[in-house]
Amino acid sequence: MVQMQAEELASRVTAALAGLPDRQAQDLARDFLEDLSCRQLAEEWKRQLAAARRMQLRLFPRSLDLDPRLDIAGANRPGFGISGDYYDCQALGPDKLAFIVADAMGHGLASGMVMTQLQAVFRTAVREGWELEQLDRRLDEVMATTWEGEVFATGLLGLVDLAGEALWLLSAGHPWPSVLRAGRRVERVVEACAPPWGAPRPSRPACPAMLAVSGQWSLLAYTDGLIEAEDSLDGQYSADRLARVHFENRTCGAEQLCESILDDALSRAGESLEPQDDLTLLAICREE
Question: Which residues pair with 99 in a beta bridge?
């Protein structure tokens, strides 16, 4: 229908220009048709991008209501229609759950393709009951064999053991999460930090960190699109700023915590409110 309307319109324009000198008429007709073609392509691209985003949203967890003892929420805002970021959280049993926050290199459709790989490996790990080290190795293998060092991804892997009152974390070149335990900040554990998945390197040491988490605690994981966002006051929105807002909202629920962080980051962006990179958050809160 759109194609027929465009052809009819083009025919009418050509007829209307028939009375002009040949050269002038040809130039005007050519410019018009080129502009019309570009607009048609742009509209088709928008439709395709919207359809791809709708499909991508189905890869994120449909529900984060996994355990009554935990309040969990996530947020993802793509910078270019399709996100290369990914978050997920899945139950492993009555007292355990695994989660991931990942960031594929690049933007748009290309990074979105990598995101689907990360999702597939993580969901397989959940079904098979892999340990964090095994999941980390498999993600690295998949990225390395598929992209041969041209593309990599960073990520944070985590395991919550409610019965054992433990939180296990492993970072693959990814920003360390903001963790509050009894209202106090937990510092980054260097030994739990490995290179990005798929990045060329001589070796890959990885030893998950175990944090004792009895009583009240909360975790806020994020991608670097947030802490590298423009900040009209300080240049970039930093991890320290994020941790400060996390502390100020430590008694809030997970969804409110995510909203507070995003609102703070975007409000400080000044006139540049549209993100230039994907923004992703995952909040997990445990009350006493």
Answer: 89, 158
- The residue ranges of every structural domain in the chain are 2-53, 59-286
Q: Is 168 helix (H, G, I), strand (E, B) or coil?
A: strand
Q: Is 68 helix (H, G, I), strand (E, B) or coil?
A: coil
Asked if residue 228 has pLDDT above 60, the reply is: yes
Q: Using N-to-C axis directions, what is the helix angle for 22-57 and 2-16, rounded to 10°?
A: 160
Give the number of other Cβ atoms within 10 Å of residue 198's Cβ.
28
Query: Given a cut of 50, is residue 273 above it in pLDDT?
Result: no
Cα separation of 97 and 15, whole Å?
68
- Long-range CB contacts for residues 125-128, cutoff 8 Å, separation at least 24: 125/98, 126/90, 126/92, 126/98
Q: What is the pLDDT of residues 81-90, one digit of tens each?
A: 777 899 999 9
pLDDT higher than 60, residue 67: yes
Looking at residue 86, the DSSP 8-state letter turns out to be: E
Distance, CA of 284 to CA of 126 (rounded, Å)? 18
| Contact indicator for 246, 178 with CB cutoff of 8 Å | yes
Name the nearest CA neighbour of 113 among 89, 133, 142. 142
Architecture of domain 59-286: 4-Layer Sandwich (3.60)
DSSP 191: G
- Asked if residue 164 has pLDDT above 90, the reply is yes
Yes or no: say if 227 and 177 are a contact pair by the CB < 8 Å rule: no
| Separation between Cα atoms, residue 231 and residue 117, nearest integer Å | 32
Q: What is the mean pLDDT of the chain?
A: 83
Helix (H) or strand (E) holding 283: strand 279-286
One-letter amino acid of 223: T
Size of the chain in residues:
288
